[in-house]
Design brief:
12 helices, elongated, alpha/beta
Length: 316
């Protein structure tokens, strides 16, 4: 777990997130595993046994939180029961991340929201109406600090199922901050989500995809995490302020790349200028082609050679 914190911090992530639960509080003894879990873990092991094996103790949470602080990265965790919410609240985590499975667990949403901390809610498997009910439940507690993550709850999620435009639908419908929780293979989809305006990107990562466990194969390894975060940061910079003006880096190229009016043939003094006498040529240190109409009909007061830029001093 500390190695995962190191990997996240070294990659430049804003936060590293774990999961907080007691298996006995979230799953029955007979609950089956999901299909993807059956492919990556022992079939004879129940979901309860698998989750119980993955529990982190309160002392381990405290140790990991302190270690994250020492690495200057936010420590977060997803709680799955009231006891876990209280544990994380005592650790003073900055916000609660709620999983897609709890969208319809309204009592739990009320309990989390009553802690008056920001909530990041994933919405895999959800209809828009279910998301609406979840948001209204949170708002009814007086907590309006909400980020909604579009998500597809399959591991890995097929690209054809991602439907990133649904993130924009959620934003338009509920006027909330939105993001994307990604379970696809690779880094392309979360980068696209960032370009579309996602304010939060959540992505599974691991130290080694070949490690035993249900999620490793659908996760990024550290070098991929670095690449994804770097590209998302580039997208953040590239989005800019939206004001369409020449950037300072472009100004030097304006005169080089744009054009000026030049003589299409040798022109003699006294000729009346017509449109066929002009050819637009680089650089843009002369008269712009968009001012051609102000030259037509005027008389040359000096000769101009073919290809020479025409100057206002050349005409009466």
């Amino acid at each position: 777990a500390k190695q995962l914190i190191d990997a996240a911090a070294d990659a430049g992530a804003d936060a590293v997130k774990f999961q907080t639960f007691k298996a006995e509080n979230i799953v029955s003894f007979t609950a089956p595993k999901a299909e993807y879990q059956l492919k990556t873990t022992a079939r004879e092991e129940s979901q309860f046994e698998m989750l119980q094996r993955l529990e982190l103790s309160p002392d381990q949470h405290n140790e990991l939180s302190e270690y994250a602080i020492s690495r200057d990265i936010l420590f977060l965790s997803t709680p799955f029961d009231d006891h876990s919410v209280e544990l994380l609240n005592q650790l003073d985590i900055p916000c609660f991340k709620i999983s897609s499975g709890e969208v319809t667990n309204l009592p739990f949403l009320r309990f989390v929201a009553s802690r008056e901390k920001p909530i990041i809610l994933s919405t895999g498997m959800s209809y828009l109406g279910e998301i609406d009910t979840a948001i209204q439940t949170i708002l009814a507690t007086g907590n309006s600090q909400i980020v909604i993550l579009h998500c597809v709850s399959n591991y890995p999620a097929d690209v054809s199922d991602i439907n990133l435009r649904a993130m924009l639908t959620i934003k338009a419908a509920f006027k909330v901050l939105v993001g994307y929780s990604d379970h696809s293979v690779g880094i392309g989809i979360p980068i696209a989500a960032a370009a579309m305006g996602a304010k939060v990107i959540e992505k599974h990562f691991t130290l080694d995809k070949n490690l035993p466990g249900p999620d490793h194969q659908a996760s990024l390894e550290p070098n991929e995490l670095v690449e994804m975060i770097n590209e998302i940061r580039n997208v953040e910079f590239a989005l800019g302020d939206g004001i369409k003006i020449p950037r300072s880096s472009e100004l030097g190229n304006r005169k080089i790349i744009r054009r000026s009016l030049a003589a299409a043939r040798d022109l003699e003094s006294g000729e009346v200028l017509t449109t066929d006498m002009f050819i637009p040529l680089r650089p843009a240190s002369g008269i712009s082609p968009n001012l051609e109409k102000f030259l037509v009909g005027r008389i040359l007061c000096k000769s101009v050679n073919k290809g020479q830029l025409i100057d206002w001093s050349d005409v009466e």
